[in-house]
Amino acid sequence: MALTLVALLTACGGGSNTSGGTTSGAGASVTGPKNALVRCPSNTNTTAASPESGQIHLVVAGWASTPAEDALVKQGLQNFEKLHPNVTVTWTPIPGDYATKMRANVASGNVPDVFYLQPPMAQEYIPAGKLLNLSPYMARDHVSPSTYYPSLMQDFDCADGTVFGIPKDWNSLGLFYNKTLFQQAGLGDPSNWTWDDLKNAAQKLTKRGSSPANSVYGIALPADASRWGAFLFANGGQMVSADGKQALFNSQAGIQAAEFYTSFELNHTGVMPGDIGASWDGDAFGKQQVAMTLEGGWMIPFLAQNYPKVQYGIAPLPIGPSGKRGNLLYTNAWAAYSGTKYPGMAWELIKYMTGAEYQTQVLHNGFALPTLTSLANDSYFQQNPGVKVLQDGAAYGQPDFYGVADTEIHNDVSNALQSIMLGKQSVADALNAAAQKVNTWIQQNVAP
What we know:
By secondary structure, the protein is of the alpha/beta class. The chain has helices at residues 67-83, 98-108, 119-125, 135-140, 150-153, 179-184, 195-205, 225-234, 252-266, 281-286, 299-306, 343-353, 356-364, 379-383, 385-392, 406-421, 427-445, and strands at residues 4-5, 23-24, 48-49, 56-63, 87-94, 114-117, 166-171, 174-178, 217-220, 270-271, 290-295, 312-315, 327-336, 397-399. The strands form 3 sheets. Strands 1, 4, 5, 6, 7, 13 and 14 form a 7-stranded mixed beta sheet that branches. A 5-stranded mixed beta sheet has the order 10-9-11-8-12. The chain has a two-stranded antiparallel sheet with strand order 2-3. The longest helix has 19 residues, at 427-445. Keywords: Signal, Transport. InterPro entries: SBP.
């Protein structure tokens, strides 16, 4: 069957049966990493439906992305159709604010059968019973949660470890460095650097000109919680308490991490991208206005397409004062609507898109990292050592998601970092004010 591409804002999965088809396993289930931040639903399917027979039409949704990613997803769905000739898949990329439009679809019951699930969406949809419980399917088909990196699985499980989504791909941060500028500064491989090494190197690499736009800076560091968090974790700190109900980023470990992170801007050995007219730090790095930056695998195709002449390497993030590295993990999942008419076939699609065949395609296309631990030694990593550095981030990274107050934490911490970098507040004052905002929001919006 030919894959149907429909650029719609909504897609109908139809029906309201949460367990349709023949079931097996009679309650057999598996559990993944327990997630204290997500309450389990009061009612969910407890058995696995067999793949439905007859002609089946699955509607699959995700956000509109790059042409390369869309082509990869469509190829995977077409391959699935070949394996299941009775199934037609309609791919419906949703442009714009994906989470908001999906929330409207869920509220109206007009939901795709299978769709991309972001961590904040999981926190909302799982307790409300909007997602198909995948644990019985995994048990029946012998798909262990340990097949995938635990740090990636956790965001899509609930408090008792029941699984509602399987990570589709992921990324971490690496230290991207300009080999040409490093050579000119007499610097070697930064793979075993400490924080002090990073600070000293940034000073050596900085060449001040008549204006910021005519200068070369050691490193680009945006006022972004989704970068600073890696330093917080490396210093032994945490963003939020285990139950997600108290901000902890203003601890002494957080203050020290913020002092270090913002010192580059304040000492003029680092720069926020906007200061030099760059749209983001990847752009500043590509223009060779900065010698280093912290980014993920998305930088690789960006640089290849826009700045192919830049010679660069990728190193692990520097070792913190605690003697450990920190990193952030970014992931989304495949999930199915609890009301799909075809739960058995919806699971088959999720299983294929998170299985070895398609995950290998994801890796070899250079789009993202595979979620299967079995691919950690794939030959692609030997051929692309920089990508292996990003893959290794799974061992020392934590998800860049912080529970019910995730949006508030990201916004308030990022604003605090910017205030520090602009010299408007001290580190302690900025982080304490941000923590107070987050805690007030939690008190007003989260049940005790």
